[in-house]
């Protein structure tokens, strides 16, 4: 049985109305209403000031308060979170670094410094990646470990780049990056042998695509990178080969390739076809957009600014009070608001809101925020908690029902009641146990099968009851897709992807 076929049959894509494969059972009336309504809504507005490269999330600091009064000036551009994904060494950090360089945020002197540092570490070509890879371990090994964060702007959009690690040991970090993203840039190396390794079973090109889809990354820009490389030399044949191999796989993973995916060739290292289109002398056959144009043009369904407030907490720290970090998935937050920290129901007040470097009075869905709260101690908050409106607060549960696609069990184990794994859902990471298999889904009809099942194997699609030890805050997939899709992992491998169907 084809595993990918089953992932598709899970229909995790139903949140993206633009995707042609929505099934009636997945489209609830309220979702349709929301999307129509959202189309009319103005894009979230933002400040158009250049922003510096932000330190990684782990180096937390709140910048000094800036002028708060020109908030009316703010929010002119929309904001998008873009996660860079793909196999190890595909060139994600290099491309991310090049974007920052091309958008004028890193000066020549810094680049020269990085060139020297990279040379000293015998990693000459790695200097561009150093813009994103900021810690010593990453620079020495030439591998991203923690998700790097940076900001840049195009004509229409303010972007937050999330540079995920490609190495398979750091997939949990990649999941955390992708769960914050609206769109993905899938970086693929065109270099001889490298595309092949990434695309093999067990390669992270595949795993990342499947995870990204599950985690709600609605659109993908597939950048075929390293086109400058001596084994490639901007070969149309190589580019076409990669596109034609990737296309069916992307379809199987649930992406509508016509609507949700754009392919383009680049060289992240040289910076070709990135800010401006590639010169015809270098690549006579490319007539499509450059990366900045493509990013500018990506359309994603807006989240509901009027919905109940939901912000999963990714991190927290002490700084003149308690500060929480996260991305708003629904609703709007204003200074002075009373909110709940769920699941422990702590009543809090919003003291200050920061978008990137700027203090703002309010912020809408899609924004990455730091919020200073009063009424709660930092110790009483964990990542995975959710900042929620008081009315219509987020459900807190220890058990839920979900539909799962079993991807790959370790050593071909069987999946049955008692199976234990690690649940990743928005910013939650929790041990979980399968309590009961309710029914299997027929892969052909996609309807529940009548016969009671006691176990299933790789490739199966099954509805089951899942239990966690401590309370977690989640939503039904049909109500809030971003808070209702998840992955199950075991011993460092993704074993299943799923969606919450009942609480
Ligand atoms: P991980 O973070 O470990 O997953 O890797 P990554 O995808 O961030 O790759 P990184 O940017 O660290 O680049 C890996 C290697 O590929 C470095 O030696 C880069 O110089 C090289 N590289 C990246 N982009 C290009 C490119 O466009 N052309 C060429 N020739 N080499 C590139
Ligand atoms: Mg990297």
Describe the structure.
This protein is an alpha+beta fold and 503 residues long. The chain folds into 3 domains: 78-297, P-loop containing nucleotide triphosphate hydrolases (Rossmann fold, 3-Layer(aba) Sandwich), CATH 3.40.50; 310-389, Elongation Factor Tu (Ef-tu), domain 3 (Beta Barrel), CATH 2.40.30; 396-502, Elongation Factor Tu (Ef-tu), domain 3 (Beta Barrel), CATH 2.40.30. It has 12 helices and 23 strands. It has helices at residues 3-9, 29-40, 92-102, 108-120, 136-141, 171-178, 194-199, 204-214, 236-252, 257-260, 291-297, 481-484, and strands at 78-85, 148-153, 157-163, 183-189, 219-225, 261-265, 310-318, 322-327, 333-334, 338-342, 346-355, 358-360, 362-363, 368-374, 386-389, 396-406, 415-416, 420-425, 428-440, 455-456, 461-473, 485-490, 493-502. The strands form 5 sheets. It has a 6-stranded mixed sheet with strand order 2-3-1-4-5-6, sandwiched between helices. It has a 6-stranded antiparallel barrel with strand order 7-8-14-11-10-15. Strands 16-21-19-18-22-23 form a 6-stranded antiparallel beta barrel. The longest helix has 17 residues, at 236-252. The model is unreliable at 1-74 (pLDDT under 50). Magnesium ion binds at residues 92-93, 129, 133, 144, 163.
């Amino acid at each position: 049985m084809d595993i990918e076929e089953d992932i598709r049959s899970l229909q995790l894509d139903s949140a993206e109305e633009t995707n042609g494969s929505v099934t009636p059972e997945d489209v609830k009336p309220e979702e349709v209403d929301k999307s129509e309504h959202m189309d009319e809504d103005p894009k979230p507005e933002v400040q158009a000031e250049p922003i510096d490269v932000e330190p990684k999330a782990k180096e937390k600091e709140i910048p000094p308060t800036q002028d708060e009064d020109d908030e009316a000036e703010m929010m002119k551009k929309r904001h998008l979170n873009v996660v860079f994904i793909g196999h190890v060494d595909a060139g994600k950090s290099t491309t991310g670094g090049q974007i920052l360089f091309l958008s004028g945020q890193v000066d020549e002197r810094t680049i020269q410094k990085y060139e020297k540092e990279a040379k000293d570490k015998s990693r000459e070509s790695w200097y561009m990646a150093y813009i994103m890879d900021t810690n010593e371990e990453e620079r020495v090994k030439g591998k991203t470990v923690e998700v790097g964060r940076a900001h840049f702007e195009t004509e229409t959009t303010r972007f937050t780049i999330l540079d995920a690690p490609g190495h398979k040991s750091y997939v949990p970090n990649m999941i955390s990056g992708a769960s914050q993203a609206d769109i993905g840039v899938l970086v693929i190396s065109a270099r001889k042998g490298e595309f092949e390794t990434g695309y093999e079973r067990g390669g992270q090109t595949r795993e990342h695509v499947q995870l990204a889809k599950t985690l709600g990354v609605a659109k993908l820009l597939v950048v075929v990178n390293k086109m400058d490389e001596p084994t490639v030399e901007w070969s149309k044949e190589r580019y076409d080969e990669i596109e034609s191999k990737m296309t069916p796989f992307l379809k199987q993973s649930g992406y509508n390739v016509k609507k949700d995916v754009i392919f383009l060739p680049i060289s992240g290292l040289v910076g070709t076809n990135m800010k401006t289109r590639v010169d015809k002398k270098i690549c006579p056959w490319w007539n499509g957009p450059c990366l900045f144009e493509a990013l500018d043009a990506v359309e994603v369904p807006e989240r509901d600014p009027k919905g109940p407030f939901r912000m999963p907490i990714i991190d927290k720290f002490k700084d003149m009070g308690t500060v929480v970090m996260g991305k708003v998935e629904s609703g709007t937050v204003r200074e002075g608001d009373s909110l709940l920290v769920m699941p422990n129901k702590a009543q809090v007040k919003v003291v200050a809101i920061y978008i990137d470097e700027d203090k703002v009075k309010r912020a809408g869905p899609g924004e990455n925020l730091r919020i200073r709260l009063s009424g709660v101690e930092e110790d009483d908050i964990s990542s995975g908690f959710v900042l929620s409106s008081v009315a219509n607060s987020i459900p807190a549960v220890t058990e839920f029902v979900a539909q799962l696609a079993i991807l790959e069990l370790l050593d071909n184990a069987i999946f049955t009641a008692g199976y234990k794994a690690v649940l990743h859902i928005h910013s939650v990471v929790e041990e979980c146990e399968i309590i009961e298999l309710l029914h299997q889904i027929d892969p052909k009809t996609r309807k529940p099968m009548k016969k009671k099942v006691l176990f299933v194997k790789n490739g199966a699609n099954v509805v089951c009851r899942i239990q966690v030890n401590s309370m977690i805050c989640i939503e039904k997939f049909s109500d809030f897709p971003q808070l209702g899709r998840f992955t199950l992992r075991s011993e460092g491998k993704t074993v299943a992807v799923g969606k919450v169907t009942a609480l």
